[in-house]
Amino acid sequence: DQQVKQNSPSLSVQEGRISILNCDYTNSMFDYFLWYKKYPAEGPTFLISISSIKDKNEDGRFTVFLNKSAKHLSLHIVPSQPGDSAVYFCAASGSGFQKLVFGTGTRLLVSP
Amino acid sequence: DTGVSQNPRHKITKRGQNVTFRCDPISEHNRLYWYRQTLGQGPEFLTYFQNEAQLEKSRLLSDRFSAERPKGSFSTLEIQRTEQGDSAMYLCASSLGGGGRTQYFGPGTRLLVL
User: Fold this and answer.
1) Please, which residues bridge with residue B85 across strands?
2) By the CB < 8 Å criterion, does B25 face chain A?
3) Is the CB of residue A89 less than 8 Å from the CB of residue A38?
4) Out of A43, A89, A98, whose CB is closest to B107?
5) Is A88's Cβ below 8 Å from some Cβ in B?
6) Could you tell me the pLDDT band of residue A5, with boundaries at 50, 70 and 90?
7) CB–CB of B103 and A100 under 8 A?
8) E strands, A1-112, where?
9) Which residue of A has its CA nearest to B111?
10) A11 burial via Cβ count (<10 Å: 0-12, 13-18, 19+)
11) A48 touches chain B (CB under 8 A)
12) What gap in Å lies between CA A95 and CA A97, rounded to an integer?
């Protein structure tokens, strides 16, 4: 039962263009969503989060959009840089429980 | 400002041996979490503590696994009688608690059971 899904295992983008990573969830109890970036052999690094009371949150080059009716969120990276190449995980939690539920990740490759 | 630290970073052991991992959370964080990540998957929740109290355990946490957080500071995760299926990256995270729901992860401990 995969409650958080990232259906694109990989994404290739050219430097300077926009990267759009997508995430879908099924549990309507989720009310807090996060994106993490992970390099090999390292722990996940927090990027940006959004509460369900908002539909957009922006931090520098990173913007997260939340569409509650569609149970969909996306991470936009503009402009993309080669250093952004990593695996990106979407995660969700609910007010009634503390654990994070993760998707399976999307590998982003930004080429010069 | 130190982040979450984990030791050791790598552990190789033989099947049947016991192993113990340590996690030191961000100092003012009262919530501490353990996750496990296998190849091609996202991290999966194992257990979490609020201060010294262990408040939730996943069904992934078999009776060979035990976690403690004495005095509400660092935490240890012990695996007894390791099996090859225990090979994974073990991740620790901490959060402020209350309204602070963002979890910050350590570098992980990679376990290989031969």
Assistant:
1) none
2) no
3) yes
4) A43
5) no
6) very high
7) yes
8) 4-5, 10-14, 19-25, 30-38, 45-51, 56-59, 62-67, 72-77, 86-94, 97-102, 106-111
9) A41
10) middle
11) no
12) 6
Closest CB to B42: pick one of A42, A46, A102.
A102
Q: What is the pLDDT of residue A2?
A: 80
Q: What is the DSSP letter of A55?
A: S
Q: Tell me which of B11, B39, B101, B112 to substitute to probe the interface with A (most A C-beta atoms closer than 10 Å).
A: B101
Question: CA-CA distance, A106 to A94, in Å (whole number)?
Answer: 23
Q: How confident is the model at residue B60 (pLDDT cuts 50, 70, 90)?
A: confident
- Say how far apart CA B88 and CA A105 lie, in whole Å: 16
Report pLDDT digits (tens) over A22-64. Answer: 999 999 999 999 999 999 889 999 999 999 999 999 999 999 9
Question: Tokens representing B25?
Answer: 């959370």
Q: Do B110 and A43 touch (CB under 8 A)?
A: no
Q: Which amino acid does the sequence have at B55?
A: L
Q: Taking CB atoms and an 8 Å cutoff, what residues of chain B touch A1?
A: none
Terminal C-alpha separation, chain B: 37
